[in-house]
Model the fold of this input.
Amino acid sequence: MSRAAEKETLLDQLSERQQQVFTQVSSLPQDAKGFAVDLSGTFDVNRSVLLDNQIHQGRVGYRWMMPLFTDNRWLLIDLGWIAAPPRREILPDLPEIQGNYRVEGIADFPSQRVVLGEESATPSWPWRVQSVDVEAISKASGYTLQPWVIRVETITRDSGETVNWNAIPVWEPVVMQPEKHYGYAMQWFGLALVVALGFVIWWRKGR
Done:
């Protein structure tokens, strides 16, 4: 029940933050999680990062991230899920990307994941990683990246045309909704009631 209440508080906070849109990275507060952004800049597809072991609708793939240069700063943009080729040793074929783009999305901090092995000290690009370590990516790419990741909602060209790079936005602010926590709580309350009634019946029969 307490976890459900925490999720409700978090969702309310994120909903409130998304009402404020930042057009410059320099204006974002230190705790940027949940704030909406509307940025214009250029991508470096040659320094793409592929977060490994991402499942979407039963299919194996990657979360594709690219550095964006905007407001004289670099930051990672999470474009979404892309499918993995049939063979493990082959990485997805990423498109050539040039020019300025408008990125609308939500600022977030990379999720902490358990990593079984260290990343390669000398990566090849696109770099397949087991977790999004902004400091390590900064060092490998030569860019001083901001600590946030921007979860994309839409990307458009200067002409206003919406971009489709076969990346599917899959980010959700919370993995488990409050309703599911309440549902689990009701199941446990129900089991507790059954056990209590069973004990009462057993005790009365034993008298």
Observations:
- The radius of gyration is 22 Å.
- The chain has two domains: 12-174, 176-207.
- The chain is about 25% helix and 30% strand.
